[in-house]
Amino acid sequence: MSNTPPTPDHKLPDDHYLNATYGDGIRSWLLTTDHKRIALLYLSTVTTFFFIGGVFATMIRIHLLTPGGALVTPETYNKLFTMHGVAMIFFFLIPSIPAVLGNFLIPMMIGAKDLAFPKINLLSWYIYVIGGCFVLYSFGTGGLDTGWTFYTPLSSVYSNSAVTPAVIGIFINGFSSILTGLNFIVTIHTMRAPGMTWFRLPLFVWAHYATSLVMILGTPVIAITLLLAGLERMFHLGFFNPALGGDPILFQHLFWFYSHPAVYIMVLPAMGVVSEIIPTFARKPIFGYSFIAGSSIAIAVIGFLVWAHHMFVTGESTYAAITFSFLSYLVAIPSAVKVFNWTSTLYKGSISWDPPMIYALGFIGLFVIGGLTGLFLACLGLDIHIHDTYFVVAHFHYIMVGGAVMGYVGGLHFWWPKITGRLYPEALSRFAAVVLFIGFNLTFFPQFILGYLGMPRRYHTYPPEFQVLNVLSSAGASILALGYLLPMIYFAWSMRYGKVAGPNPWPATGLEWKTASPPPTENFELTPEVTWEPYDYNNRPDLGLSAGAPSPAPARGDD
Amino acid sequence: MHRTGELYGQFQTLEQQKETATLGMWIFLVTEVLFFGGLFLTYTINRSTFSTAFGIGSNTLDITLGAGNTVVLIMSSLTMAMAVWSAQVGKKKLVSIFLMATLGLGTVFLGVKAVEYKQKFDHHLVPGRSFDMKYHPTHPLPGDDPKELALEKKEVAEAFAHDPDINAHGQLYFSLYFGMTGLHALHMIVGAGLLLWLIKGSFAGRFTPQYNTPVEIVGLYWHFVDIVWIFLFPLLYLIDRHR
User: Fold this and answer.
1) What is the b/e burial string over A511-538, where b = at least 16 CB atoms within 10 angstroms of the residue's CB?
2) For chain B: N or C, fewer Cβ within 10 A?
3) In chain B, what are the domains?
4) Cβ contact, residue pair A216, B27, below 8 Å
5) Which residue of B has its CA nearest to A35?
6) What is the ipTM of this complex?
7) 3-class DSSP state for residue B129?
8) Partner A contacted by B182 (CB < 8 A)
9) Which CATH number is A32-536 given?
10) For the whole model, what pTM was predicted?
11) Binning pLDDT at 50, 70 and 90, where does residue A2 land?
């Protein structure tokens, strides 16, 4: 990069959403209806839950260092993996990208001043906090030992842990997700700027549209299901209790009707993030825009038709199982469409290895492994063998941590200059991305082998011959933890000391980059008008990008 | 976002604002369909598994009160529709009158529901320790028709011979009865609160042919809650009724 001209020094704008005051101090944050501030409120709370879930994960990995279990009693171990799952899934993964990055970016990407319903947006954050308090109360007063799946009648009758407040908390939290999804769908329909047609929308917005569909159609079902399970526990009713005539398999059907599509709530937004990062750092229009957009919707739709593949061993009808197995295979098609389109975008691109790009490429690698092992599990015959083993644990961590969290951290790196107006240290963040990738694989790849060899999930003990693989996994987890802590440290550092980024440091083509960093409260000085096609890196003279001319290098925090 | 008159800052025009609010309510109603859907599914599956117990459960409900309430609720939908129409054509006085009529009919519905709930407590048909399907036929209350009671007694005895766990399965029916009608009543109460807010606005003359979005979207909500009852009434009261 020695022959690129020096970039001019940027200055932070005088007035932006972070220093605007509508009232004083903390009240201007807690009563804000600005989608950008609400995004930061979410950022702080989901990070808190990520820490809580991370502490439980750490204790699990320490415990599994020795075959007999090194740290806790079997009962406590049950609580650790349950609370890890509940904190991470319901309070970190599901809100992470939509409620933080989606909230911040969707209005800016479509050229709107705010979401359609700003007060409802703030309300959904408060609902999340109230739900979170109930769950923390459960963690603090006896914990939770049912597994994150809350299978009845264990959860509704036999468990001696604090199930009721946890169920109430997750029920309440569901409405946060529903209202966020509702807000996004309505916003994308009615708040687009002039010229921002459906097929000019950034793919991040398409991904969030699909995610929102899953949120509004799936979440009400888990809400009513957990409500019934909670009522069953509180009033000794029998909806799902076989001793009273109820049907525990019905609970599993209702639970997975939401909880399988919920996986797509986690991974679709990450795919949206990757679809933004790849063309930016390959300096090429994205390959197959309409296929990537359509595949998001296809994943959301097919995702609702596969839930019973979690239930192959419940004794469901063979024909049902074969049908669900077949439908589960179908999800691979739109997923593969995305991966092939990203790699085609890279082909003959002018690739620069900036941190967001390293995360995006890491996402593709881990998602491919997670997705292909998903096919193993969709296969009816093989799933009977590896059901409820560490193979499943490894698979869904590749999708949810390797996929969704990689996308989330990559997205934070990509839009951090927009959110804070400042760049972070380049070399350190590249190092952190590589550490994260290595730590992740070392943690979870051995678990595929453990599962294939027959180690069941959720056991607090294992035969001595599995120790080497378990120690490798625990060692990987400590590297992984470093990979998460490093960005937290340098992000915090950059808020004060980072180099000022300017409006469009990479440069990227989306509308959000056409306004100041950090943006003003109303996002744009004037409502923008869109006259260009998405990701058109050959034809954007306003960004210094045109065919044949050398493209400007990304701004770097270390320069 | 500050607002100018009735226009909130994030919107460009009143039309955009109205379109947005209406779409928001429709999407909310979609989530409500799924929310009730889980309950309806649980009910349907148990109804087919335990048809004897559920049939007897249906028979204990008071069809006159149920059918009467159905009429009350349909009438309230009519008055709600009239309120929306009055707002659209600018008849400010009629808006208030029709909104108050809707609220009145909604309150009648809830009152009748309370009477029905009390009956279930009196008959020991509330899930819990004192639940007993045999209690009512053997402990008549003043005003009960002796012929009806004799029929009920015979029917319960036959059912017990057929399904010894009838009290457990009957509790499932009544759990679902209270769950479904309770959730519906909760929606009615929320609707009544929204109506009160609209009535306050209509007294202030807020709703005009140019701006009547709140009346319209509360109307959508109210009609939805009515439709839920249109499904609940046959499911709970009518299927397998044989007296």
Assistant:
1) bbbbbbbbbbbbbbeeebebeeebbbbe
2) C
3) 50-238 (1.20.120.80)
4) yes
5) B1
6) 0.93
7) coil
8) no
9) 1.20.210.10
10) 0.95
11) very low
